[in-house]
């Protein structure tokens, strides 16, 4: 299927690896020009080279990168200094650490809200008017399945990402919807990423179990009996950015292998 977005420009955050990379790769393969952002310059440069070398990348699809912390004002300024206007924005920042809410002070909460609520809002604010003026725009916020089914030890993430979800529910239904701009959230469940493996390693260390046993136990809680892949996550992201998804806005798309037990 031709998604109709070849030649568009996309900003993809947290794109050096994991789900962000999956999104960048899927967009590049659709002929989208991408500017990828992450903090580590060496890994980011290697990722850009990988995307450029991808045999499925159309020859005209450009790949640029900026090494910056997108959760800071300086980081965002560095991105927009390189390119001001984007047709597609994929917001993504690493989730805050797990723990007991009794141990989180104000600084921990502010850091979580800055990264996982206010940063996406700042990126939306900086780009949607240009999108509306051109008559096309797609914003996809990578959030978490914990927005739908909160996880007790991820209270910082539950709170910050739920705040973003509420904001998007309102702004997506403004006049932007009639100007060709859609804003949706993509909610990952358990995907085979470094973050998941780090969490599983922590659980293995805490319980004294081998990590393979912890990973297998986690897989068995998922009806699909496997973890998702960044590639299939990226494919869903690319669809949300497509011309075919023009009538879809203000939605929370849950991609979790059936783990969420609810009807709605």
From TrEMBL:
Q: Name one Pfam family in it.
A: adh_short_C2
Q: Which domain of life is it from?
A: Bacteria
> For this UniProt entry, which residues form the secretion signal?
none
The transmembrane segments are: none
Give the InterPro entries listed for this entry. NAD(P)-bd_dom_sf (IPR036291), SDR (IPR050259), SDR_fam (IPR002347)
What is stated as this protein's family in its record?
Belongs to the short-chain dehydrogenases/reductases (SDR) family.
The protein in question is named: 3-oxoacyl-ACP reductase
What species does this protein belong to? Polaromonas eurypsychrophila
């Amino acid at each position: 299927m031709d998604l109709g977005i070849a030649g568009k420009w996309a900003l993809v955050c947290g794109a050096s690896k994991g789900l962000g990379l999956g999104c960048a790769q899927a967009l590049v393969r659709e002929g989208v020009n991408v500017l990828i952002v992450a903090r580590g310059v060496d890994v980011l440069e290697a990722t850009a080279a990988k995307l450029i070398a991808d045999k499925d990348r159309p020859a005209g699809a450009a790949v640029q990168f900026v090494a910056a912390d997108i959760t800071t004002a300086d980081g965002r300024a560095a991105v927009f200094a390189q390119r001001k206007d984007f047709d597609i924005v994929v917001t993504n920042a690493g989730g805050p650490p797990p723990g007991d809410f009794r141990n989180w002070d104000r600084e921990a909460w502010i850091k979580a809200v800055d990264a996982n609520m206010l940063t996406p809002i700042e990126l939306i604010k900086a780009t949607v008017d240009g999108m509306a003026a051109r008559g096309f725009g797609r914003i996809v916020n990578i959030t978490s399945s914990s927005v739908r089914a909160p996880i007790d030890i991820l209270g910082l993430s539950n709170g910050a990402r739920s705040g973003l979800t509420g904001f998007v529910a309102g702004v997506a239904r403004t006049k932007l919807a009639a100007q060709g701009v859609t804003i949706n959230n993509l909610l990952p469940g358990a995907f085979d990423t470094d973050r998941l493996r780090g969490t599983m390693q922590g659980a293995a260390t805490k319980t004294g179990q081998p990590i393979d046993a912890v990973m297998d136990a986690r897989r068995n809680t998922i009806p699909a009996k496997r973890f998702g892949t960044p590639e299939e996550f990226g494919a869903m992201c690319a669809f949300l950015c497509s011309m075919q998804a023009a009538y879809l806005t203000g939605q929370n798309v849950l991609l979790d292998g059936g783990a969420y037990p609810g009807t709605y």
